Amino acid sequence: MRLLGRIGPGLLLLSLAIAQMAGAAARMVDGTMSSRPNQVIGNEITSAQRATVEKGLAFLATRQRRDGSFAGYGAQGHAGITALAGLAFMSAGNLPGRGQYGQNVQKCLDFVMASCQESGLITSDTTSGPMYGHGFATLFLGEIYGMNKDEDVKERLQKAVKLMQRAQSREGGWRYQPISADADISVTIAEIMGLRAARDAGIKVEKSVIDAAITYVRNCQNADGGFSYTAHGSGSGFARSAAGVASLYYAGVFEGNELKRGLAYLKQHAAAPATAEHEGYYFYGHYYACQAMFLAGGDYWATYYPAIRDHLIARQNKATGAWSGEAGEDYGTAMALIILQMPNRYLPVFHGKGPGG
Questions:
Q1: What are the percentages of helix, strand and coil residues in the chain, rounded to 5?
Q2: φ and ψ at 168, to 5 degrees?
């Protein structure tokens, strides 16, 4: 298998160990044991998927700027999208300086580290709400630190977590700016995943912060099982419902009626990946839906992944290897590659307990 030569035996053993621990920690959902999310179902990775991923990774590498950054949301260098690109390369088994795209991961890390401010905020972008990018960047640093234990990364990761904790709203969620005035589920899932990765890497995260976040996410759920954009807000939508279900999992909620209803909503609306409801936030929605279905396991994953895999393969620009997403080609390609490579099971954040676990 060609990937074994790329990632080396150490990371392979780490991945297998994580998979075994996550399987052992499987929880009860609606009275029945969900299938292990790490259990290979046999039809996940196809020759078409491999070829698509290889072409996509090659394209993404050409998009990296000299300073290590990737662009999006009107910014030439965006810390959040650079972090997502780094995660896309890491999903193929690359680490900083190690693997076919190891130098690309290292350059992503260099740019994200350079974007860390003294306050703890990670941003290089002044054109949009920085907390989106902060969440993605914290997730990336958490995954890096969990593998290399670099003290410089640890220092910035700790500051990023402290800023998140200060910026949490009274409702328990987060919003575009690092102030505690408001919240929405879209920014909240980004912060929860960042906290999850940091905690898994050994960084202290206050339990009260996670408990408040769980309360906020539950308050965003509607009677139909889907989630609204804000607590007690408007109707349900696919992308925000995917974010809501993923939020519960990453916050350490593995059982309960809210998960059952949320997964049922996702399963119903994910059956046709290209429906108009999905298209407004296609990559964003499926980025979280893929994680939610993976963590649910069983029929959820077995039905969902082949459908989104084949749809992403069809959507790829065959001439360049790119995908065009809501925030441009760098963003769309990174998101598509993370989704497609979920079966590789290399990123620790996709396994085990959440930050409150």
A1: 60, 5, 35
A2: -65, 135
Q: pTM of the full predicted structure?
A: 0.87
Sign of the torsion angle spanned by Cα atoms 174, 175, 178, 181: negative
User: Stretch 56-80: mean pLDDT, rounded?
Assistant: 91
Residues near 230 by Cβ (< 8 Å), separated by ≥ 6? 183, 184, 185, 220
2-350: CATH architecture:
Alpha/alpha barrel (1.50)
Which residues fall within 8 angstroms of residue 159, CB to CB, at 6 or more apart?
Answer: 116, 118, 119, 120
30 neighbors 260 (Cβ within 8 angstroms): yes
Which tens digits make up the pLDDT trace of 71-110? Answer: 877 667 899 999 999 999 999 999 999 999 999 999 999 9
Whether residue 3 is predicted with pLDDT greater than 70 in this model: the reply is no
Nearest CA among 257, 178, 255, 248 for reference residue 213: 248
User: Which residues, 6+ apart, have CB-to-CB distance to 211 below 8 Å?
Assistant: 356
In a 10 Å sphere around its CB, with 0-12 CB exposed, 13-18 middle and 19+ buried, how is residue 181 labelled? exposed
Do 335 and 328 contact (CB within 8 A), yes or no?
no
What does the pLDDT read at residue 264? 95
The label of the residue with tokens 């050409």 reads 62
Q: Is 32 helix (H, G, I), strand (E, B) or coil?
A: strand
Q: CB neighbours of 223 closer than 8 A, spacing ≥ 6?
A: none
Burial of 192: CB neighbours in 10 Å, binned 0-12, 13-18, 19+: buried
List pLDDT tens digits, range 217-269: 999 999 999 999 999 878 899 999 999 999 999 999 999 999 999 999 999 88
Domain spans of the chain?
A: 2-350
